[in-house]
Amino acid sequence: MARKPGANVPKSRKRAGSVPSATGRQVDWMLIGAVVVVIGLIAGLAIYLVPKFNEQRAEQKDDVAVESVSEFVPTPQNPDPAANIPGVTKRYYEAARHVTATQRVAYDQSPPFGGPHDEIWATCTGVVYPNPLRSENAVHALEHGAVWITYNPDTISPEDLDYLKQLVRGEQYLFLSPYPGLDKPLSLQSWGHQLKLDSARDPRVNQFITALRRNMMPGVYPENPQTAAYPETQATCTAIPGFDPSNPPPADQGEPGPDAVPMNGGSANPMPAG
């Protein structure tokens, strides 16, 4: 018996839920779902790990910062590590030559970092002074082992000033004040040492502080090898009567007059340490 046309041709079977693709192939939704899940897991892992990686890098940077100043810690073998800091100016000054509150000193440096000074020191317990200080008070604080950081309010960047404030605030034997007319954005002073810089982020800032804040090692000055980097190694930085850190004596204006005390002492009174 004759077969009907198409009688033995099998009919195609379609799987329930499948969608024909443009090429005639079926899309495997289970496979796509698995891929999406894997991508989600990878993204979630990245969200977790990236902050951890950044924290680790920050810790490594902190370690590098510590390592970068370790060689500037004074030792008997290296009493003056500041000698290895490029740009540091060093001079030897006689100590304990005091002037009164009404006298001025004809300093040989600006800002000064040694020489005759007021008998009352500027409080140097991490104070951030908003106004310029009287140099004669500030220099006495250097004689006690402090580092005085000054900045030009017209040329320092806001970011650098914020950085210096955070660096100084609350730190013993550090103090910060503006110094109008400074020939660099910032300058660091310790007794007998000075470093002028363009940026507060310069690594030499921390190197200078490490090398010279309360450096009690003898052998810093060839002129007097028995003395430490600063004269009064047992002196304090706390406030005393005669200097109110919330309202300190203002900076003198203009150049010192002919009656100013010269750097060799002149009418300054040699006084006991204090």
Describe, in plain words, how this protein is organized in 3D.
Pfam families: DUF3105 (PF11303). Keywords: Membrane, Transmembrane, Transmembrane helix. Residues 1-20, 239-274 are annotated as: Disordered. InterPro entries: DUF3105 (IPR021454). The chain crosses the membrane at residues 29-50. The protein has 274 residues and is of the alpha/beta class. The protein folds into two domains: 27-70; 75-274, no CATH class. 26% of the residues lie in helices and 12% in strands. The chain has helices at residues 29-70, 135-143, 158-168, 204-212; strands at 89-90, 97-99, 117-118, 125-128, 147-151, 174-178, 186-190, 193-197, 269-270. It has a six-stranded mixed sheet with strand order 1-8-7-5-6-4. β5 (147-151), α3 (158-168) and β6 (174-178) form a beta-alpha-beta unit. The longest helix is centred in the first third of the chain and has 42 residues, at 29-70. The protein is elongated, with a radius of gyration of 35 Å. The termini are far apart. The model is unreliable at 57-65 (pLDDT under 50).
Short description:
This protein is of the alpha/beta class. It has 4 helices and 9 strands.
Uncertain regions spanning at least 5 consecutive residues = 57-65
Q: Would you tell me the structural class of the helices and strands?
A: alpha/beta
Shape: elongated
Helix content: 25-40%
Please tell me the overall pLDDT: 87
> What is the number of beta strands?
9
Return the domain count. 2
Largest beta sheet, briefly?
6 strands, mixed
User: What letter string, H or E per element, gives the SSE order?
Assistant: HEEEEHEHEEEHE
State the helix count: 4
Approximately how much beta-strand content do the residues carry? 5-15%
> How far is the first residue's CA from the last residue's CA?
132 Å
Rounded to the nearest angstrom, the radius of gyration is 35 Å
In spatial order, strands of the major sheet run 1-8-7-5-6-4
